[in-house]
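Lab notebook, bench 4. The sequencing result for the construct came back, and we need a structural model before the next group meeting so we can plan mutations. Quick request posted to the team channel:

Model the 3D structure of this chain.
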Amino acid sequence: MIPAGATLPGSYDPFIVALSAVIAVASSYAALDLAGRVTASKGRAFAAWLTCGSVVMGIGIWSMHFTAMLGFKLPVPVSYDWRKVLQSFFVAVLASSLALYLVSRKKMSNARAIGGGVMMGFGIAPLHYLDMLAMRMRADCHYNFMLVALSVVFAIAFSYSALRIAFYFRDATAEAMRKIGGAFFMASAICAMHYTGMAATTFIASGVEPDLAQSVSVSALGTTGIIIVTLLILGLAMLSSLVDRRYEAQAFQLALAQANVELVYLGRAASLGELAMSIAHEINQPLGAVVNSASAALRWLANQPPNLQEAREAATQTVREANRAGEVIARIRALVKKETPRMERLDLNEVIREALALAGNEIAKCRVVVKSDLSATAPAVSGDRVQLQQVLFNLIINAIEAVHAVKDGPRELRITSTTDSSVVQVSVEDTGVGLGQEDLDRIFHPFYTTKRDGIGMGLSISRSIIEAHGGQLWVGSRSPRGAVFQFRLPKADGAE
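Done. Here's the predicted structure in token form:
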């Protein structure tokens, strides 16, 4: 029997103390994760993450304090008033809610961080002392007010540091090791506050029996249950944050891919104005030939006797030119239609000839001399015919416009294709006005243009298309004047 007035010796269970430190680290890391999710969310998702995050973070902070108290052993039986313990839990949740709300703001001034740290500190300190008041035993608690004040200072300093660290590491791109380091620092601050508060307390034996009406005794099994449930909740919170980050990253990639598709479609639509004259010329040629061949067939049939051989040849020519017109129309429809790219084995020389045919009217109107040197041994490439036609057409039209701006000198456009063991390379050279160094540095940037009426998207889209095909597109100057655009594509699998 311990006499009344005697100072009770206390000791710590090192295993439970170690587990309380683990909870502190886990809850600190979870807090950094949850701060990032709250910051990244909006609307209902923001409210959901703030609410759930506050509860989880509150559980972590409360559990660390209460578990550490359970690790403190006295020579008298100790139970706890569940009402006071519940109050301390709600204090932890409110402090966590304030912390997550503050770190979710776009900016955190030093004044806001200090004010938030003071408010949180005066919230977390009562959490500890409410748990102390919840103790029911044949002893009284006496406090060293200097150490109590120091523990409150620690609580404020911890809160301020936690706000700063959480605000700094809330971004999902923060380095994992630095984030873990921040969690250890926050956990150290939590432990320092708790054990300073415990050091401020002296337990004096009392002869009065405690009121155990609203109290519960926590066994070793109960302590283990609190620790396990807390760690499971914190682990689930960190897993939920990880899944949400992955989902957000996938949604961003999907939106980016959709934006690229829309960008390519806009590029095609922007090319329609430049294509209009070439389309009319390209279609009018076979249609005119169809009319002429059909008229000739009628004349041969009207002869007496009918010249069936000549009529048959004219009809054959009519069918051939009609098919050619259909192919031109189908190619134009595919160019402007928003459809998924179709990857196939292509003869790049054939694609070059088709692009030159589309630009034929502009070539004739601007009186540009076209010279081509296409490698007969170029292997097949894998690509979308329409997209590669778009790239070549854009490079050819740009070259024609650059040449047309020249008042004197040769007006030449030279297209070559070469090959080595693994790639096919195409060059589009012109004798136009050329490009300055600033143009060379920025020519592929979106919305940068050297044309007075251009929109600056054609070359940016062209580079995106070539890179999507696993190739490269670049530009250089040509001596004595002009520019040369070059791209290379890998040969198709199995191509010789």
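The chain has three domains: 11-257, 271-339, 347-496.
Will bring this to the meeting.
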